[in-house]
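Let's study a protein:

===
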Amino acid sequence: MNIFNKVIVLLILICIICVSLISIVNVFMEYFKWSDLALKVFNPENEVNAFIAALALLAVSIFIMLLEFYRRGTRVANISSSKTGNAMVTLETVAMQIKNAVIKIDGLEEIKVKIVPKATGIIINMNAKLNEDLEIPEKMQEIINEAAGIVSDKLGIKVIKTNLTVIGLVAGRKEKEVRKKGEEEEAVEAVREEAEDVSEIEDDDR
């Protein structure tokens, strides 16, 4: 079930709950009679044409049913280097190839890739987190060149434009590894000191 249908079902459930609550309260308070309310709604003297109302309800029901069975086709990008046929690659595959290639660049901590297909090629949009100790402009250009190169050279897809946005600067992996190693050494040292203290207490007891 897609999002639109979920919203419709949710609204219907909310209406049912509200009608149920009103019905429960009306049993004790007797604000109105359901028969009188039905006559007001379906009274032929009202301006609303019953045929038009039924037709509109039918159209809405068919539209919702079509949305339920409708499935979006796989989004693909055409390979421009193919001369004898129509060769395509899914956008998910292109994004994964880019991510696998650029994640190996030193200083790149995290990368998210989105591909926008166009008639003559694709647009690459990337969001990245970089090491805060890097030369940011140079590293961004390196990432852009690598992403565009892997698409055009390896996949044979024309790149119209490559956009890169830095969404955060974080401590580098090496710094994290050094910090983690230091914490592990401190933990080992603490355990060793605790073991020595226990040994000394046992010797004193003897």
About this structure: The helical segments are 3-29, 34-41, 50-69, 91-102, 136-155, 173-205. Strands lie at 76-78, 88-90, 108-117, 122-131, 159-170.
